[in-house]
Amino acid sequence: MNYIVLDLEWNQSRCKSNEIKEMPFEIIEIGAVKLNDEKKEIGRFHELIKPEVYLDLNHTIKNIVHINIEELNQGIPFLEAMEKFLEWCGWEEYTFCTWGPLDLVELQKNMKYYHMEPLSMTPIAFLDLQKLFSRQYEDNKTRRTLEYAVDFLHIQKEEPFHRAFWDAYYTAKVMAKLSDKTLDHVSFDVFHIPKEKEQEVYKVFYDYAKYISREFATKTAAMADREVISTRCYICNRNLQRQLKWFTSNGRNYYSISVCPVHGNMKGKIRLKKTKEDTYYVVKTLKFISEEEKKEILIKREKTSLHRKKNKKMYNQRKTISSMVVQNKNQIS
């Protein structure tokens, strides 16, 4: 399998009122490096794209990207560039690799705008190397710039950043420093959410499991689905009894605790995501946790319960007062 390390540069409207809703960012440059399964470079790709939607460079973009409109006007149309790029990617199986999650999203928005056949109608597995850099070298939460990672890893700088090919080149250099264990943690682009149960995503990593559901009409329907709320041990595959049922403090993130007799305490986390069509889908993660982490979740559950009781009491008090006011008005009348 090959890796396509991809980077894009894009432009946007100089005026918010002139923005095209379906494509707020127009791709103006594609850069990529192809690596084999040993992370050795086996190909390069670069194309400038002539703007067709936003014909002037946005002031902010102009200051960041080392390119001018005269150069861009010498480029080729997006459809031609994409045809060349996909042909260059080849028919052999490959995985996209990007610095952060945005490039694949914007690529697919541009493709959809030009009525191209989509890359996939289901979530795309890819490597978010910005996240993986943090996972291997930092706290798995901090997100660094590409230049920071290059400096941190003492990678030689050959050309300026913020040009598509050279950013892809540096990203590939960072990727070469990451372990195979780190690179096992693929991300999923959900530009296209599963429509059917058969398209749902199940992925087990060495330290947690992820599930991406199909779409549901409502939150209630999602949280009533058996697969969504199930807590199965991803190591021994047994169905677990929940010690702490699913609860939420904000209506978006839900938590639970289950216990596997062999592997211990397992935290479940459900994130409810809303689509542009006002439907919902679920991203669920299952992970084994320590007793200390378990206590933190139990405390969170207790705080949530107390907060709800307090709110309910205040609601009942206001309702009682309102009722008394209405009764007094009626008596006076």
Q: How many β strands by DSSP?
A: 12
What portion of the residues fall into strands of 2 or more residues? 25-35%
Give helix % range: 25-40%
Q: Could you give me the name of the CATH homologous superfamily of the largest domain?
A: Ribonuclease H-like superfamily/Ribonuclease H
Mean pLDDT: 93
Q: Decide which structural class fits the backbone.
A: alpha+beta
Q: Rg, please?
A: 25 Å
CATH class of the largest domain: Alpha Beta
Write the layout of secondary structure elements.
Layout (H helix, E strand, L loop, with lengths): L1 E11 L12 E11 L5 E8 L10 H6 L4 H4 L5 H12 L4 E5 L3 H12 L10 E5 H9 L8 H7 L11 H12 L4 H4 L3 E3 L11 E4 L4 E4 L6 H6 L1 H4 L12 E7 L4 E8 L3 E11 L5 E9 L2 H42 L1
Parallel strand pairs: 1-4, 4-5
Antiparallel strand pairs: 1-2, 2-3, 5-6, 7-8, 8-12, 9-10, 10-11, 11-12
What features would you describe in this structure?
With 333 residues, the protein is an alpha+beta fold. The protein folds into two domains: 2-187, Ribonuclease H-like superfamily/Ribonuclease H (Nucleotidyltransferase, domain 5), CATH 3.30.420.10; 193-298. Helices cover 35% and strands 26% of the residues. It contains eleven helices and twelve strands. It has helices at residues 59-64, 69-72, 78-89, 102-113, 129-137, 146-152, 164-175, 180-183, 219-224, 226-229, 291-332, and strands at residues 2-12, 25-35, 41-48, 94-98, 124-128, 187-189, 201-204, 209-212, 242-248, 253-260, 264-274, 280-288. It has a six-stranded mixed sheet. α6 (146-152) crosses α7. The chain is globular, with a radius of gyration of 25 Å.
